[in-house]
Amino acid sequence: SQQGEEDPQALSIQEGENATMNCSYKTSINNLQWYRQNSGRGLVHLILIRSNEREKHSGRLRVTLDTSKKSSSLLITASRAADTASYFCATDDYNNNDMRFGAGTRLTVKP
Amino acid sequence: EAGVTQFPSHSVIEKGQTVTLRCDPISGHDNLYWYRRVMGKEIKFLLHFVKESKQDESGMPNNRFLAERTGGTYSTLKVQPAELEDSGVYFCASSRTLVQETQYFGPGTRLLVL
Fold first, then answer.
1. Residue B107, preceding peptide bond in cis (omega within 30° of 0)
2. Average pLDDT for A33-58
3. Which of A37, A100, A106 should one mutate to test binding to chain B, selecting the residue with the greatest count of B CBs within 10 A?
4. What are B62-77's pLDDT values in tens digits?
5. Would you say the C-alpha torsion B27, B29, B31, B37 has a positive or negative sign?
6. Which whole number is the average pLDDT over B81-106?
């Protein structure tokens, strides 16, 4: 199955609520990245977490990485309607010169 | 359903040569995206096709890069002449419509320019 699988596939919440998206992967990684894509536009890099890090923050974003479970989560706190987008995780494996994307989570934040 | 495929998986060329990358999106997907990842950095958007039309090519680095999608099916990305800084991984992704935003990524083409 696909490396970097996100769940849920779709998430709908109210403005002000927190949104949590998860990503699982199968092989060893050097880092994991989260990206966002608005409708019709390219990917925007959100945050990168290295394999020796467990948690990272950037503004309203919080990313965790559990290498023992081969999983990561992206938490968006106090969501806004403008956060509506698709969110992807991508894993980086330097040993195999490999980068894989998941299918993404479609987040809808209702005003 | 077959996923997004890209060809070749790897390409090693000399500076000054031409390389053409190909992407076959999932059948029925109108939207096709090209991305590039230069060594160790984040993915960057190159351009977006809707069927055969270029919707957004704001990410194309310079005029050495030419993307086409004749007939609205597969797409090619030509680099001519290739420079050393063009080395990286080129990803293609497709999605059905803009309403359904989920993109499906191909495995990428690893380009090395010597």
1. no
2. 85
3. A37
4. 999 999 998 889 999 9
5. negative
6. 84
Quote the minimal CA–CA distance from B80 to chain A in Å: 23
Q: Are A91 and A25 in contact (CB under 8 A)?
A: yes
What gap in Å lies between CA B63 and CA B72, rounded to an integer? Answer: 22
Contact between residue A86 and residue A107 where contact means Cβ atoms under 8 Å apart: yes
Residue from B27, B46, B28, B24 nearest B37 by CA: B46
Nearest to B103 by CA among A34, A43, A61: A43
pLDDT of residue A2: 36
Q: CA B51, A11, A42, A30 torsion: positive or negative? A: negative
Determine, for residues A42 and B102 on separate chains, whether the beta-carbon distance falls below 8 Å.
Answer: no
Separation between Cα atoms, residue A66 and residue A26, nearest integer Å: 12
Task: Name the amino acid, one letter, at B26.
Answer: I
Residues 6 or more apart whose Cβ sits within 8 Å of residue B103: A37, A86, A88, A101, A103, A104, B31, B33, B93, B94, B95
